[in-house]
Description:
Chain A is built from eleven helices and 13 strands. The first copy, chain A, is of the alpha+beta class and 337 residues long. The longest helix of chain A has 19 residues, at 87-105. The model of chain A has no long low-confidence stretch (mean pLDDT 97). Chains A and B meet through strand 2, strand 4, strand 7, strand 9 and helix 8 of A and strand 2, strand 4, strand 7, strand 9 and helix 8 of B.
Amino acid sequence: MLRVPYADLDHALHRAMLHLGLDGDRAALCARLFAETTRDGVYTHGLNRFPRFAGMVANGCIDLAAEPTRVAGAAAIERWDGHLGPGNLNAYAAMQRAIELARLHGLGCVALSNTNHWMRGGSYGWLAAETGLFAICWTNTLANLPAWGAISPTLGNNPLVVAIPRPDGAHVVLDMAVSQFSYGTISAYTARGEQLPVAGGYDAAGELTTNPAAIEASQRALPIGYWKGSGLSLVLDMLAAMLSGGLATHQLPRDSARESGLSQIFLAIDPSSFVARPELDRIANGILDSLHAAVAIDPAHPVRTPGQQTLRLREENLRLGVPVDPVLWERLLLLSF
Amino acid sequence: MLRVPYADLDHALHRAMLHLGLDGDRAALCARLFAETTRDGVYTHGLNRFPRFAGMVANGCIDLAAEPTRVAGAAAIERWDGHLGPGNLNAYAAMQRAIELARLHGLGCVALSNTNHWMRGGSYGWLAAETGLFAICWTNTLANLPAWGAISPTLGNNPLVVAIPRPDGAHVVLDMAVSQFSYGTISAYTARGEQLPVAGGYDAAGELTTNPAAIEASQRALPIGYWKGSGLSLVLDMLAAMLSGGLATHQLPRDSARESGLSQIFLAIDPSSFVARPELDRIANGILDSLHAAVAIDPAHPVRTPGQQTLRLREENLRLGVPVDPVLWERLLLLSF
Lengths: 337, 337
């Protein structure tokens, strides 16, 4: 593993975005969102995802020139069309607009259609929390999970993000797909020859298994909580497609290289006109103190809050350099995508 | 099991509410919410819960005379104080107010503090869906789940409801706690001498188990999706307590007979000013058709949607009579609580 200074990673990605054909400011923002994701330790959705992003520009799924536009709305809720522009730029713009609406109305919601993969969903939660707002957002995805009681996959793993602003940037940001494990994680376990820590799907005989290769073969991954995550995935897809007027999971190409036309929801909450920051912080401190006082299974591993690992890795990677795949880094410097 | 006509159940509950000391219209609504819950097949949270409700009136946790009041707000979001009134009446009023706010602003949110158990959370989802609106609501609860990595319970199972309006009352309503099984369900398996269908918690040795008695002994039930449900429970509690200004899970009495002072969130969404009903129905029909077309594990058990079982049991119970516990029914008729 190679570590490179964060500024170098951001700069190289910026050059690469310009090389792909993105305009100035948009290239800088798109690069920053990729670089921050790797900096924060979400390696699957940062630099490592750039080749697929470049591939989707090449195959026409991503239109670099497209910018989202408002197509309808009423006071605190609006529909936007992403016109198949870069998914992270569309999502960033949508959350920014939800924040503006929340500042006006206390609550704001943008339902975004015709967009592309938002990369790290947590980015838009951190964005809202940095402005002092609460946020809830989610995306639909291609079908990769069987519904409870089904063999064939008709549900997406529909990542869900919930962000809670905290002092000094130590926000609580939950960023979770509704599958127990992503296929990326399952493949990584197979490659390492390891079993999953808990059952992640069914084998060919229809038994729950921790064997990652068996799940890759059956394509029957588990939703979180079995029937519960199955229901949650369904309603997230319904809300996203119905409110945005966009495509639902069953209409998306079943090919990750062509997974385009997603629907997403961005909800921001601004209680600042009726509650002072110290009251919010006092309530949150009590909750987090109680959590951290819980008796740990292993005293060497105290209970963590969502976002805590992100902050730790961010600090470490800014100090030591951001870990990058050496081959990918070389390709990025040569702009050979 | 005894079956009684729905009208008789509703009437007997209404008499019982008046006997407890609730005023006229409020007694009728409170009784109806209990009766509808049993009618819809959610037996744990309807009539069967009435003795505990009466007990909490007797022990002073529920103030029958208290009505919720607005304490603060800004446009689409408001804080209400439930003054420890009956939980189902407070929740009904809060969702009604969220619906009013959504009709004005497209979105509406009520954050409710100092309330009591809302009984069936789904009731407030059905209420919004009946008016053609989307809804998301949740409540915190007493601590009954260890956080991921902890032995001692510091999280609630915080039920979450998502409602999607559909034609002819066939709404999609997800109503799920973030624990894999409630302790009520776990006890019922113990009583029947059955194993849980999937692991529901840890035994005394710290191993995942399907043995319900072992989980009752360890008090280490599982959140859905292990670490994921743990994070979800935490952020739902933070949002509810911070936005309402009320109590968080760690502050609630660890005694279900005195579980009072809850915090809840009611969010309603009204897109009717910019999208016509037929477009919403067309999108939802596509999603549900795709789900029902999934290859079932057992062809005799096609995939179900959240709310479908409710509609089936509602129809059956209205036709055949609502199943009630004979002893409880006798006590209700004698008003002997």
